[in-house]
What does this fold into?
Amino acid sequence: MGGRASNLSDEDIIHRVIAGDVNAFEFLLERYQARVFRIIGRRVPWMDLEEVAHDAFVRAYISLSTYERRGDFESWLTKIAVRACYDYWRERYKRREQPVSSLSEDQLKRLARAAADQSMRSDAGRAASLEARELLAWAMDRLSPEDRAVLELVYLEERPVKEAAELLGWSSVNVKVRAYRSRKKLRAILESLIVEEGGTS
Amino acid sequence: MRKRARMIDELEKRLFSAYGAQEGVPQGDRWRESVMGELRRLGPLAIEGNGEAAFGRLAWRFSAAAVFVALILLVYMLSNGFVDYQDLAMQYLANPIDFII
It folds into this structure.
């Protein structure tokens, strides 16, 4: 399928799908699945990644007639993927599911103190990166879905406010205010990890 | 206090950089087949591709405005009487100098 797909533009494929050729959508799936998996893989736990990616592509298919060549298809699909993640966290938040981290609070505190110590520079390897991600997932899990979404776009991915606003469907002012507040909340969560029980760090 | 803020800055920096260093995600044919399976179950979109249906939707979008304009014209014609403008135009073109309404 890959060979034939490379000869067709996105517009051609979309035209075929809209005209009723469901199978043509597989060209788009093949072309963009890596990108969509990358976007979603950063935002949702590993175990739910395939399900959210599946949902994003089904949404894209259903709303393909609303695409109408506004901007490029990749941006349009990115928007759908980001919103699918946002909806995933909203659903999860509503159900009050357990935090994503498998580590205990004590372990997390130890990790946080080690990572916060500027003198400890030797832990730059893969294991340290995994631990940092675990820690980040734990901290992000304590934020609301809105805070999480805006923090990821503005601070973690360093996207411009305007782009983040477009992806989330919010106003730029709303994104700016929420981004600032959510970062403050994240810092408070991190502070609670590195501060000892007695109140000293 | 300043030391604590520095520690939080450092921790935040490390966490943020770990986010960017995520590894690639493998995707399989099985997953793609499951998506395509669902799309086939949903069936073809066949909305925009059907020209007749697209024209129908467009016509309905302007139907209210069309009815409004028709009503205004009807009221205007009823209040001003029916005049055969085509005949008047033909008379004018045949003899523009002697043309009087």
